[in-house]
């Protein structure tokens, strides 16, 4: 059975893109004939992202230049959002690409890992519903949310199966769509063995891993670093050309505020990220409700003690299961959490061990089993013709 994974902006290089590649790998190992179809704007950037996100595995990726129609759609999305809301661009381009792929594959299975909408495909993987209210006020945001809803409505179809990345996302999805769709939780795979470390000797380092984009609230890392001057804070993650500009903004923000213990490192190689996380005492996630929190789970695997915002999948599905004391609602609470753990080596050791036991339930084999079970639940197997 042929499975085509539709993901039009693979070169963004965030958690959604990692998921698409790992799903392709899992489907291949389960006996499906699988490939990813994507558009590209920057071929070199796409090649680098593929290299970073698929160590030890050579994915089958069909990269297409943006056709005129998709180029117009992408330009419109950029103009509407200032290139800041990648989710809108993903959704618009997914609609174009799904239409083309449906005409090409005939009886194959189409999987949408990008749009955040239950599109007219066989399987839709929802990282977070596109049309959830932002809570922001004002004419501009009301107009934007109206636009998103109209877009989502135009893209919505009848997928045979909807997959979501956490129990938290499932609850949000049901709040938007009710019980109309068949929904299963399939956690993104975490490369636990690659990152794993229970090393107790740690440096006074705090790491944040994130795609460099304004909505990720990374300015709060600078604010928090100013309250813990004896720690070095590292902000690392993938960055497009626009993301590099945002990384530059964060550097200037730290300089302007006289915060000298912040290090902004875009596009850090995966091996160096692993080394950094294995030596860091803490991982800090800024106040953003992460839908699952792949970077949080990787940090926990590496033995960094997580401190996260008390919302989202990163909290409910990962960190709250390690210890309720590791969550915050205001960044002003973070220094006290740091000082408590820092002063109690036995507590730090227990948190590392509990954390590793939690994230082992998210490893690749667990992901593959959950995916296979979910597909079988709607009669999609590698033997289908």
TrEMBL record:
Instruction: Tell me which Gene Ontology terms the entry assigns under biological process.
Output: protein N-linked glycosylation
Q: Does the keyword Protease apply?
A: no
- The Glycosyl transferase family domain extends over 195-314
Would you tell me the Gene Ontology cellular component terms?
membrane
Q: Which residues form a coiled coil?
A: none
Q: Which residue numbers delimit the Glycosyltransferase subfamily 4-like N-terminal domain?
A: 14-193
- Asked if the record carries the keyword Transferase, the reply is yes
Alphabetic keyword roster: Transferase
Query: Which InterPro entries does this entry report, sorted A to Z?
Result: ALG11 (IPR038013), Glyco_trans_1 (IPR001296), Glyco_trans_4-like_N (IPR028098)
Record GO terms (molecular function): GDP-Man:Man(3)GlcNAc(2)-PP-Dol alpha-1,2-mannosyltransferase activity
Gene3D superfamilies, alphabetized = Glycogen Phosphorylase B
- Listed name of the protein: Glycosyl transferase, group 1
């Amino acid at each position: 059975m042929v499975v085509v994974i539709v993901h039009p902006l693979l070169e963004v290089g965030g958690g959604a893109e990692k998921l698409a590649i790992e799903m392709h790998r899992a489907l291949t190992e389960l006996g499906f004939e699988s490939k990813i179809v994507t558009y590209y704007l920057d071929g070199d950037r796409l090649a680098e992202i593929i290299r970073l996100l698929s160590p030890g595995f050579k994915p089958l990726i069909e990269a297409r230049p943006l056709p005129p129609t998709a180029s117009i759609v992408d330009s419109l999305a950029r103009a509407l959002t200032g290139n800041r809301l990648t989710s809108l661009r993903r959704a618009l381009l997914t609609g174009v690409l799904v239409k083309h792929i449906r005409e090409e594959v005939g009886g194959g299975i189409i999987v949408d890992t990008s749009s955040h909408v239950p599109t007219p495909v066989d399987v839709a993987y929802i990282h977070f519903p596109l049309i959830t209210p932002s809570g922001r006020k004002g004419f501009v945001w009301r107009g934007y949310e109206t636009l998103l809803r109209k877009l989502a409505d135009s893209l919505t179809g009848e997928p045979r199966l909807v997959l979501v990345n956490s129990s938290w996302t499932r609850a949000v999805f049901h709040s938007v769509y009710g019980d109309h769709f068949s929904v299963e939780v399939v956690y993104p795979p975490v490369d636990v063995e690659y990152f794993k470390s229970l090393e107790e000797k740690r440096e006074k380092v705090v790491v944040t891993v994130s795609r460099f984009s304004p909505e990720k609230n990374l300015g709060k890392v600078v604010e928090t670093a100013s309250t813990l001057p004896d720690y070095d804070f590292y902000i690392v993650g993938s960055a497009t050309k626009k993301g590099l500009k945002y990384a530059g903004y964060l550097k200037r923000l730290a300089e302007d505020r006289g915060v000298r213990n912040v290090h902004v490192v875009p596009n850090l190689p995966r091996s160096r990220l692993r080394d950094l996380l294995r030596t860091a005492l803490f991982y800090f996630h800024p106040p953003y409700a992460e839908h699952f929190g792949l970077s949080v789970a990787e940090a926990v695997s590496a033995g960094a003690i997580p401190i996260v915002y008390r919302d989202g999948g990163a909290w409910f599905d990962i960190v709250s299961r390690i210890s309720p004391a590791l969550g915050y609602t205001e960044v002003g609470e973070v220094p006290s959490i740091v000082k408590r753990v820092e002063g109690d080596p036995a507590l730090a050791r227990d948190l590392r061990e509990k954390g590793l036991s939690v994230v082992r339930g998210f490893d690749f084999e667990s992901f593959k089993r959950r995916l296979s079970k979910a597909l079988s639940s709607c009669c999609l197997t590698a033997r289908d013709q």
